Amino acid sequence: MKVTSKQNPKFARLIDKWFLKESGNVESALVLIPLLILFTGIIQLYCFQNTKSAMELVAEGVAASSISIQNTVAAQFAAQEYLKRPGLPKFVNSKLLEVIVKDEQVAGFIIRKVYLRDVNHSNLIQFLPRQVVTTIVIN
Fold this sequence. Notes:
The protein is of the alpha+beta class. Helices cover 50% and strands 20% of the residues. It has one domain (9-138). It has a three-stranded antiparallel beta sheet. A hairpin with a 2-residue loop joins β1 and β2.
């Protein structure tokens, strides 16, 4: 775009001096593209960590709801029912989360471990599985 001197000479000089100058465009792109990639990576890690923290809270709630239940099968059923309760975070969907309750006996104590795993995320991204474990002692 060339502005003629018939229009406004100050405006023409301003455009020629600042807006039509193309020096620095390649350098700006070489800096901005890696910064944008870094920014999106940081945002993804931040979202992953927040979701994992929320999953830990849900797993603790599942474990706390199964403290009074002595049977492992009944605790598994109670854990699946806990995920269907209203008021949990939006990502908690009983179809997308897999809950496993395991009981181990160590030195006379029964230790219950509640595993909560996001099935969809594990199928997509194998190196960052969304799985949390909560351990409680029953006795």
